[in-house]
Prior knowledge:
With 396 residues, the protein is α+β, with helices and mostly antiparallel strands.
Amino acid sequence: MKIVCFFALFLIVSSVFGQVPDLSKMDIVEKSVPDGPVAIVLGVPVSKEEFLTRYKTELLECIVMSRNKNPSDIDRVRVAIRCLTLLAEREILYQEGLKRKYTATDGEVKKEMDEQVTILKEVLKSEGKKEPTFEDVLKLRGDTPESFKERTRKNVILEKVKKAIAEEKKISVSDSEIKQFYEQNPQLFLKPTRIHLQHIFKQPKPNAKMADEKAWSDTLKEVEKALARIRAGESFEAVARSVSDASDRDKGGDMGWMPVSGLPPFYAEAVVKLQKGEVSVPIKSNLGWHLIKVVDKESEEKISLEEARDEIHRVIYERKLDEVLYEFCRPYLNDPEKVKFFLALDPVLKKLVAVEGEKLSEQNSKKDSAVSGSKSSTPQTKGKSSKSSSSSNKKK
């Protein structure tokens, strides 16, 4: 399912930021990855390629959740450690499935493969993209028909193992737990103010970082011409298709429904001033120039406990399952004879955290010095005033 998640995240990030972050650029994690396997789990190697695919997917999730296009080195390393652990757990659980003689029938594998293809088709359709063929899905996955089938077969066995362990540990979620979760997390059960947007994005040449003042000015003129066409009666969709540099230009710049709280700041500030059907003036960001149109708006409303019950149950159940699976895998993970890691990220994280700690300590020290200096000057003034008052009293 990860390819579907990755592709959906790819589309979300591209629509929000105008372009997708360059994940191929070498970062602190990729610099640390060995040429061979990143780990050997119960005698089975975890390849560099498998790790990097998982890492980039998780990193995109981090970008979407934090709205930060450039995660810090500490965040990147933490994401990588999580990916490495999850891949090791996955292999441990798969080997457990083989021990228990679990199998995946051709029918089960075909059903799972069909579901993955269907989900990806729905994602693309919702984004106005061309419906992919089976060959397109394989290309996106970097798979052959044989490797796709084998990977899916492994996933089916893994799900059977997880289900069996959950039943053995008697994982359950009570009504009181669901109610407590609902009451303790009220912010999660508000449908935020949503807005349906269309946009046009133009990037100065050759790109936003290297463009000079003239390139930015020329790009603004292009956007102003686009706005003039819209004001003259041409549809926003048609203009977006002809001039926009965004990935959604082919569907008329339609970004779909989005929570206002999730918009980039330069969009959020503009939409507050716009009514339904209105188009903004050109908006400048560090990426380029933008035009946005408010197609529709929805107000915030509270989701009832009954509406949220199934989703809360799923979240709590999966949280408990993750804990149980980790406890099952922990003896293997802690045994260097059974699990060997060749991507040493813990020392890197410790060093990064130590450096951040030193910076924070230095900043706090400077603040304390400034406050201390300010306080030391105050008593002197009071002292002089006191003496003056005392002297005055004596004269009297």
